[in-house]
Amino acid sequence: MAYKDFIEPVHTSTKRDYLKRVIDYPKAKASQIAKQFGKDYWDGDRKFGYGGYFYDGRWKPVAKAIAEHYDLKSGDKVLDIGCGKGFLLFDLLEAVPGLQVCGVDISSYAIENAKEEVKPYLSVGNATHLPFKDNSFDLVLSINTLHNLRTYNLEKGLKELERVKKKNSYIVMDSFRNENERVNLLYWQVTCECFYSIEEWEWWFKLCNYTGDYSFIYFE
Fold it and tell me: Which pLDDT value is given to residue 14?
């Protein structure tokens, strides 16, 4: 298990006004709408989620770095848990032709509006009950997804991820290093159920026998 950050440039490329997030619209209502993971969350107003999640190539350098780090090659199998519209999987296919990709997401809207090239490989599913055999994938990814689970399901999700991988995995969670980042995270998030410090996340990993790589997103 090692800390490896592939996505900080994607995260920090977006500017965030944390106070505006909680002042302009009732946060509780925004979260209720966002947690439906429907059109409002993906392609509605920014206060409900992404504010329009369309392919723009932002994941290309991430895909390239992941492919190089894990030495992915044609024929390898990759699963993305919480794949959204499949943009990262599409860019992985571009980076490694012949890769076998698979994605699951709890949002039927995301799957229905996924990138056409990878849509046949995506399905609606839950991180706590993955419909795959043990040791099915050379690499399992889960970026900004597992922290949306309640604590009683987080353990299930981490253990399911560990079960279906045969080699490597990489996950990303929201976290904080100080009180300022903790408050910013609470202000900004609309779907996150787990609010843990670095030390607490690492405690979870050990509890669930998670052996893969990981990194955190901070709201500075």
Answer: 87
Domain boundaries, the chain: 8-217
The structural architecture, per CATH, of the domain 8-217 is 3-Layer(aba) Sandwich (3.40)
> Could you give the CA distance from residue 147 to residue 151 in angstroms, rounded to a whole number?
9
pTM for this prediction: 0.96
* Residue 1: pLDDT over 90: no
- Cβ 11 vs Cβ 61: under 8 Å: no
Token pair in block for residue 15: 């500017």
Q: How many C-beta atoms lie closer than 10 Å to residue 71's C-beta?
A: 11
CB 153 within 8 Å of CB 128: yes
Predicted pLDDT of residue 82: 98
Angle (CA) 44-47-48 rounded to 5° is 55
Give CA separation, 140 vs 48, 56, 70, in Å: 28, 23, 11
One-letter amino acid at 7 equals I
Phi, psi of 188 (to 5 degrees): -85, -45
Task: Give the integer Cα–Cα distance in Å for 84 and 111.
Answer: 7
Could you give the CA distance from residue 148 to residue 35 in angstroms, rounded to a whole number?
9
Q: Name the maximum alpha-carbon separation found in the chain.
A: 49
- Which pLDDT tens digit goes with each residue over 15-74? 899 999 999 999 999 999 999 999 999 999 999 999 999 999 999 999 999 999 999 999
For residue 117 the two structure tokens come to 């090239």
Dist CA 15 CA 21 (whole Å): 12
